[in-house]
Amino acid sequence: MLINVKDIETFLERPYPLIIAGNRSTLEKVPPGNWIAGTVPFVIENRGEELQDDLLEITPIPSSVSEVKIKSYTLDNIHQI
Known about the structure:
Blueprint: E1 2-4, H1 8-12, E2 18-22, H2 24-27, E3 35-39, E4 42-44, E5 48-50, E6 55-60
Parallel strand pairs: 2-3
Antiparallel strand pairs: 1-6, 2-6, 4-5
């Protein structure tokens, strides 16, 4: 879902974590909360298009997900995904 950064607080108030993608300068405007993010210069939907300033792509993690962890993978353990 593509939203303006000024609307992000509405989603941060909800009880589920978010995955957020956007430009670095836009992500720096997101207040602390239950989210993880990555920078991306464009959004791929039906076509590649540049991500406008102040827009974020958000994906709520569904309530059926019982645990969220951050893990690092290398060439030696990437097969474990």
